[in-house]
Design the sequence.
């Protein structure tokens, strides 16, 4: 699959700094031209994350934006996200690729080009 990233802005949700709620924050970012949204949630129970991620996905689809889930391959798969972003302590990217398939994005945190 070929990915087109028309925007230089990449929005990452962050509940602790949100004053208006994640959905409102995402809507404002999309209205401002963001076309990549990463759902990062560390506080909510998984069921609530699924519900909220589905709502964020709907907003992304409305604006033609790419939707990425932070850390959770299971959540990305469950909601139909475009991909996942993995940190150094998360699932190995090779395993995430096998689970998600070739048509999904798998990003990783990198501290250097090595």
Sequence:
């Amino acid at each position: 699959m070929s990915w087109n990233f028309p925007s230089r802005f990449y929005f990452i949700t962050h509940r602790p700094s949100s004053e208006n709620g994640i959905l409102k924050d995402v809507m404002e970012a999309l209205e401002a031209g963001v076309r990549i949204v990463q759902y990062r949630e560390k506080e909510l129970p998984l069921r609530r994350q699924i519900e909220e991620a589905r709502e964020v996905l709907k907003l992304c689809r409305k604006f033609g934006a790419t939707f990425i889930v932070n850390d959770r391959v299971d959540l990305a798969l469950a909601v139909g996200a475009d991909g996942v972003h993995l940190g150094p302590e998360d699932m190995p990217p090779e395993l995430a690729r096998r689970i998600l398939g070739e048509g999904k994005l798998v990003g990783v945190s990198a501290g250097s080009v090595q």
The helical segments are 22-31, 46-63, 73-79, 93-100. The chain has one domain: 10-108. Strands lie at 10-12, 36-39, 66-70, 83-86, 105-108. The chain has four helices and five strands.
